[in-house]
Design a protein that fits this description.
The protein is of the alpha+beta class. It has seven helices and four strands, in the order H-E-E-E-H-E-H-H-H-H-H.
């Protein structure tokens, strides 16, 4: 059963409406909001929802702001009426949940097919092979630095968590290690 719009919303004191509590709509979650966004030049109401941190499988740069605060999922409702916007927000939330379940399945698949997985397999065997041989410790240390190297180690690259099948040339060249090496060379050139 829908309720009346709170008077604080009408006067402008309240900036957002909870879809379940303020609008009285049947909603699967209690933290789905409809709000007016002054930053966007739109007459339409926006909606936002924050998943639990355990459920949020977005990459870190999408999950948090540069200041470290968690980011909402946000979208436009395309409605100016709060009740219509609330109904749209519920459907929007359900679509986001479907996409998140897709993220979960992709994450589980990638974790078994990523460079991290193959590195663990490779390095265990590599260590066993060279641990007691002449010059083995140096080889092990050098090989470890390829993976764990500060800033340019492969484990620090975004593509290292992708499935190996999905790593592209642009991951390696434009976004990856080569780009970091070029930046490092430029920094060294400036200090000379």
């Amino acid at each position: 059963m829908t309720k009346q719009i709170p008077s604080e919303w009408v006067t402008g004191k309240k900036k957002s409406l909870n879809v379940a509590f303020d609008l009285g709509l049947r909603c699967p979650v209690t933290n789905l909001y409809v709000f007016k966004n002054k930053n966007k030049n739109s007459k339409f109401l926006q909606c936002r929802w924050m998943p639990d941190i355990d459920e949020d499988f977005r990459p870190d740069h999408l999950q948090r702001t540069s200041g470290g605060k968690r980011r909402y999922f946000e979208g436009s409702t395309g409605h100016t009426n709060p009740f219509e916007a609330g109904k749209y927000a519920i459907d929007w939330y359900k679509d986001i949940r479907k996409k998140m379940s897709g993220y979960v399945q992709e994450y589980e698949f990638n974790s078994g097919h990523s460079l991290h997985h193959f590195w663990d397999l490779f390095f265990d065997d590599f260590q066993k092979k060279f641990i007691n041989k002449r010059g083995g410790n140096k080889r092990i240390t050098n090989t470890k630095s390829y993976w764990y190297g500060e800033e340019i180690g492969i484990c620090h690259q975004e593509f290292s968590r992708k499935s190996v099948d999905k790593i592209t040339y642009s991951d390696l060249v434009k976004k990856g290690v080569r780009n970091l090496w070029n930046k490092r060379q430029q920094e060294k050139a400036l200090t000379l």
